[in-house]
Amino acid sequence: MHNDPLWNLRHAIAGVALALLLAVLLAAALGRVVGDWLGGGYGVRVSIYGGLLLYVVLGAAVLFLRVAQHETRALSPARVALWLASLWAWPLLFAARRAR
Residues 15, 79: contact at Cβ < 8 Å? Predict the structure, then answer.
């Protein structure tokens, strides 16, 4: 069981999954707020939500591929919050890499 690659990635998988669930809910709320602020109708809100959803799902994939193998700490609310913040700030990974 401990030789199973998925078992070794269990903390990262759970962290990304929970953070992505929260990010989807946050994207829906942001889509509504920004859509209403722009004075748009349902189509504008859905478009904003769709764009935000694509952004965080892409971020989840990038983060999982880049960071998952290094995640060894047990899942906690603080770790989920860090994963959630990372889902929204994932382009900074590429900016930091280019700065080196």
Answer: yes
